[in-house]
Specification:
By secondary structure, the chain is α/β, with parallel strands linked by helices. It has one domain: TIM Barrel (Alpha-Beta Barrel). About 50% of the residues lie in helices and about 15% in strands. An eight-stranded parallel β-barrel has the order 1-2-3-4-5-6-7-8, surrounded by ten helices. Helix 6 links the parallel strand 4 and strand 5. The chain is globular. Bound molecules: glyceraldehyde-3-phosphate (G3H), 1,3-dihydroxyacetonephosphate and zinc ion. It comes from Methylococcus capsulatus (strain ATCC 33009 / NCIMB 11132 / Bath). Its EC number is 4.1.2.13. Belongs to the class II fructose-bisphosphate aldolase family.
Length: about 325
């Protein structure tokens, strides 16, 4: 059944687990996620970005999700719009049948001006008013993540990056977060604690802690009832990145967020964990390997199937690690 983000995350908070929210663009990704969730009995969050809507087209996305719900009637599914840039985008998604939307009003936040904060509060509150009237949940964002939000060039492809971004000035402030939640009444809040979008998060293999879990704790203590969201939470599995390179690709040396740090975040109020890059890397590695290893094949379904199998394994591992298995 299609259910709202609020319902899913309330359950997750009550039972102390976290849910991965996977980005979807096509049938293979959706099937991979549903297959994994069904195998371990986990609730599902599917999320579509603006890029996904451009790629698949709104009707295809809508019907693919309906198909997933029809095929897996025992699994609760939330269809969430990822990074809505304006109230208009969010309204369009509500009309399209999404049960949750993200109003990302944080895009100006790296300017750190009172005007950028007021803009975020104003647009997010507007979306909450409309969405709640339709039974749709809203995720807001406060603070500033890496490349996507700041528009800093040179990170997404691993070229031209000087190393890690200095996130320290852009982390979510606990007092501001409390004020933001009070004013907007969002159901979930995305926070900046040192993650960034894309494959190139950290240039060196993490030794100590890479995220500011102390900040997660501080925000959770300040506003214990709000569901926290971590964006940019791919772990960028080394074996799949290596697979891409072993079979003719060229991915730069890179490290993602260690799964144990996400689990630590979940202990302190993180309930939704956004993952896109991991499924891209795994499916791409599997397809490159398949094409080299089975050169006689020309049935594309076998190629897509290899991608799907690789994605299912990642999804299953995340459901289990985040404690979502058995919670559907
Ligand atoms: O947060 C962004 C997601 O990774 C979606 O990426 O805009 O390329 O679909 P996209
Ligand atoms: P990754 O790029 O780390 O997978 O993050 C995805 C994300 O945050 C989507 O909103
Ligand atoms: Zn994101």
């Amino acid at each position: 059944a299609l259910i709202s983000l609020r319902q899913l995350l309330d359950h997750a908070a009550e039972h102390g687990y976290g849910l991965p929210a996977f980005n979807v663009n096509n049938m293979e990704q959706i099937k991979a996620i549903m297959e994994a969730a069904s195998a371990v009995d986990a609730p599902v969050i599917l999320q579509g970005s603006a890029g996904a809507r451009t790629y698949a087209g709104e009707p295809f996305l809508r019907h693919l999700v309906r198909a997933a719900i029809e095929m897996y009637p025992h699994i609760p599914v939330c269809m969430h719009q990822d990074h809505g840039a304006s109230p208009a985008v969010c309204i369009r998604s509500i009309q399209s049948g999404f049960s949750s939307v993200m109003m990302d009003g944080s895009l100006l936040e790296d300017m750190k001006t009172p005007a950028s904060y007021a803009y975020n509060v104003e647009t997010t509150r507007k979306v909450v008013e409309m969405a709640h009237a339709c039974g749709v949940s809203v995720e807001g964002e406060l603070g500033c993540l890496g490349s996507l939000e700041t528009g800093r060039a040179g990170k997404e492809d691993g070229h031209g990056a000087e190393g890690e971004l200095d996130h320290s000035l852009l982390l979510t402030d606990p007092d501001e977060a409390a004020d933001f939640v009070r004013q907007t009444q969002v159901d979930a809040l995305a926070i900046a604690i040192g993650t960034s979008h894309g494959a190139y998060k950290f240039t060196r293999k993490p030794t100590g802690q890479v995220l500011r879990i102390d900040r997660v704790k501080a925000i959770h203590q300040r506003i214990p009832t709000i569901h926290l969201v971590m964006h940019g939470s791919s772990s960028v599995p080394e074996e799949w990145a290596q697979m891409i390179n072993d079979y003719g690709g060229d991915i730069g040396q890179t490290y993602g967020v260690p799964v144990e740090e996400i689990v630590e975040g979940i202990r302190h109020g993180v309930r939704k964990v956004n993952i896109d890059t991991d499924l891209r890397i795994a499916s791409y590695g599997a397809m490159r390997r398949f094409m080299v290893e089975d050169r006689k094949n020309f049935d594309p379904r076998k190629l897509y199937k290899a991608a799907q199998t690789a994605m299912t394994a990642i999804c299953r591992a995340r459901y289990e690690a985040f404690g979502a298995a058995g919670q559907a």
